[in-house]
From TrEMBL:
Biological process per Gene Ontology, one example term: carboxylic acid biosynthetic process
Signal peptide extent: none
Source species taxonomy: Bacteria, Candidatus Giovannoniibacteriota
Species whose genome carries this gene: Candidatus Giovannonibacteria bacterium GW2011_GWA2_44_13b
Family according to the record: Belongs to the class-IV pyridoxal-phosphate-dependent aminotransferase family.
Protein name listed in UniProt: Aminotransferase class IV
Coiled-coil segments on the chain, per record: none
GO molecular function (one): catalytic activity
InterPro entries on file: Aminotrans_IV, Aminotransferase-like, BCAT-like_C, BCAT-like_N, Class-IV_PLP-Dep_Aminotrnsfr
Length: 298
């Protein structure tokens, strides 16, 4: 495990955070990516989304933060302490505040690198929808993960593994950390096109699916995936940075979401379209890291 902090124009091993708005107001933007033996998984795309979150939502002065190449250099330096799989977190906050409300004008960046315990072989999930939504879903903001924990606790207390964001108009959107996909009985792969955080892994899944012959159609759908639409689906799964693809078994809690009571028909296991897509992704990821390891060795 290692950390580096960029504060007021210089890198430091740590800084005092007693007055940082990231602590007091859960105010910040975040990126998470995987690394293997020093090679970063799609770092450019993750950093691009971090800049989008900082500039688009927070309107932070990016000129006060280090460049993409400088950040990459520090991440790679920290990765030398991890010999195999690692998870990299990059956090940007508005920085310190004299009154714990308004920024002093010096944004800070924290890089955290630690060993990754891969959970890609997790068993099929039992999920429940919650009639809530993430604000500014196109940005990866720290605040949203805070209140998601409450809904996760509620779901666990009701006998579920996790929850899905859902709305009467928006339909099913995503999980607290994951993107949501369905496979229809006719072999179409669909995922919501809007009101979600468009993950890097999600993008790779879509690209691999379009190039394969697994599905009859692959599409980011502009229409809502309503609960009743699940009748037309044979599979559902989640994707995230560290989990690859997770087959997901949907079922409804009558007291919470009556209209999907009994929708527990989803296929799981090795002989499914989602499992085949996952194998393509794992092969892609292995080749991606292998090619970059060869470059560093030569």
């Amino acid at each position: 495990m290692g950390q580096a902090v960029y504060s007021k124009g210089s890198w430091r091993p740590w800084v005092k955070i007693e007055s940082d708005l990231g602590l007091w107001r859960a105010d910040g933007a975040l990126e998470v990516l995987e690394a293997q033996y020093g090679a970063l998984f799609h770092f450019d795309e993750h950093f691009e989304r971090l800049v989008k979150s900082c500039s688009g939502y927070k309107d932070l002065d990016m000129s006060q933060l280090p460049s993409e190449s400088e950040v990459r250099e520090h991440v790679e330096h920290l990765l030398k302490k991890e010999s195999s799989n690692a998870i990299v977190h990059i956090l940007v906050t508005p920085g310190t505040s004299a009154d714990l409300k308004n920024t002093d004008g010096f944004p800070e960046m924290v890089i955290d690198v630690r060993r990754l315990e891969n959970s890609s072989d997790a068993p099929p999930l039992k999920l429940i929808t919650k009639n809530v939504r993430r604000y500014f879903p196109e940005f990866k903001l720290t605040a949203g993960y805070g209140y998601a924990r409450r809904f996760q606790a509620e779901a666990a207390g009701e006998g579920y593994d996790n929850f899905l964001y859902w709305g009467e108009r928006t339909g099913i959107l995503e999980g607290p950390y994951e993107n949501f996909f369905v496979v229809t009985k006719t072999g179409c792969l669909y995922t919501p096109a809007s009101n979600v955080l468009k993950g890097v892994t999600r993008k790779i899944f879509l690209e691999l699916a379009k190039k394969s012959d697994i599905f009859t159609e692959v599409c980011e759908v502009p229409w809502a995936i309503h609960l009743g639409y699940l009748e037309r689906c044979s599979e559902a799964f989640l994707s995230s940075t560290t989990k690859g693809g997770i087959p997901a078994k949907e079922s409804g809690d009558i007291s919470q979401i009556r209209q999907i009571d009994g929708y527990d028909h989803f296929e799981v296991g090795a002989d499914t379209r989602s499992a085949e897509l996952k194998r393509l992704f794992l092969e892609y990821r292995e080749n991606y890291f292998a090619s970059r390891r060869k470059k560093t060795e030569t």
